[in-house]
Structure formats: C-alpha cells, structure tokens
C-alpha cells in the first residue's frame, strides 16, 4: 500500500437513510442503515456493487456499528439502545449477547475476538465470538469519550476520542493493560493537519498505519504506527459529507467510508469507496 498518496474515488453507493456502518465478509459488502424505524443490513456484491439482499435485524434498538470476522464467517452489529451485540452468521441467522453498557463501536482482534468500545463509561470489553466476556479495561482518565478502539498484534489499543466541542480531540495508542498512553496525535480541536474535530472511527492496515475518520473536518487522515502524521488521504472535497465509519480492504487497497449529512430535516447517508 502506498502510504503517502491521496486516495482516488472509485465508486459511491446510492444515497439513502443514515448509514451506521460498513464491512466486508466473503466477497460481500455489508451496509447497515437506520431505515424507516427498522435497522436493516443491505448486502452488496463487492465487485459490481449490486444489491443482493436486505436482512432485517430482529428486536433491534439503535445500531451504532458493524464489523465482520472471516475466521468465524459472521458479522457483528452493535446495538446502543439494547446494550448488546447482534451476531449474524453465514446463513443469515441472528443471535445476540449483552454488553451491559451502550456499545459505540466494534472491531475484531488478531485472535478473532470482538473488541467493544463503550464511550460513556470509557471502557473496552473483549468478547469471544459467541459473547463470553474475556477482558474489561477502563481507559486512562484523560481519554474522554473514546469512540473506537482497535487492538494491535502487540496487544496495545489504538483509540480515537473526543466529542465535537470537547477540549481534546485526538488518537492514542494505549498500553495493553489500559493504564497508560504510549503515543498520541492531536489535542485541541481544529482543522490544521495535526488537529481533529470529532475523530470518530479508525481503520488499520497490515503494517499498522492508521486511517482516522475526522468527522467534522470531513476528511480521512493517515498516521504512522507511532501516530506521526503522514498525510490527508481523503479530502473534504472528495467526501463532501461527514465520515463516521471506515472499513479497509487491504487486499484490494480499497477504503470504504460511511458518510452522512443532514438534509431537509433528516439524515441521509451513503458509502464512498476510495482506492488508497
């Protein structure tokens, strides 16, 4: 992957209801929306981007994220209202387990466990694929409103945190025990190259370079494994709308960006596909 190039827009999925997350599984693109009071998963072909089917999530509350696991061939969906994670298997069958706190975002680590970030209580929880709690960490006191966490192969966590208007908006590398900040990038919110305004979601490549969805700046920033600034890989001119979720297909070198915008008293969304 070329780590200092500007991304090239290659496709944009149709506009519709607000997008809550995007992921890939077994050659299919999964997109979840808030749709007419019922959150639905739309499944597209990853080559033609043709809509293949829609799957309704049973007993859903309010979806906040989606991720996938090729090892277990399943998709995980975070439900803020029900404080749970829904598991969708290859046969489109659902199960779910409780998180006890509202889950804001999801990721899968190197040993195929589910990492759940709970913003309000500043916790990261690790679950097995079927919902057995394996570990729970409370993040350092200065990590306020952690939106998304990804565990690296070394066991450390990359976390983006800070709400729109908070005094600190940044990306951090947190030690495996959750007690200390190893590296950080950002600080006071703003629009300069070293600043963020609501850094909301992350993607990490095979070399542990970090893509950051900088939501209110309407851009995606690329950082080194030690969180040194590399470049603005996707600009506000390319996105137009606020990026809120990322998924990186490392094999095809494609970054899927879920973007939303407020129009005519409602939130509309789409997925932008960028070659990086």
How would you describe this structure to a colleague?
The protein has a single domain (14-275), classed as 6 Propeller (Neuraminidase), CATH 2.120.10.30. The protein is built from one helix and 25 strands. It is globular, with a radius of gyration of 17 Å. The model has no long low-confidence stretch (mean pLDDT 93). With 276 residues, the protein is mainly β.
Rg computed from alpha carbons, rounded to a whole number of angstroms? 17 Å
What structural class do the secondary elements suggest? Answer: mainly beta
Count of domains: 1
N-end to C-end Cα span: 7 Å
User: Can you give the helix content as a percent range?
Assistant: under 10%
CATH class: Mainly Beta
| Quaternary form | single chain
- Total number of helical segments? 1
User: What string gives the helices and strands in order?
Assistant: EEEEEEEEEEEEEEEEEEEEEEHEEE
**Shape, principal axes of CA atoms:** globular
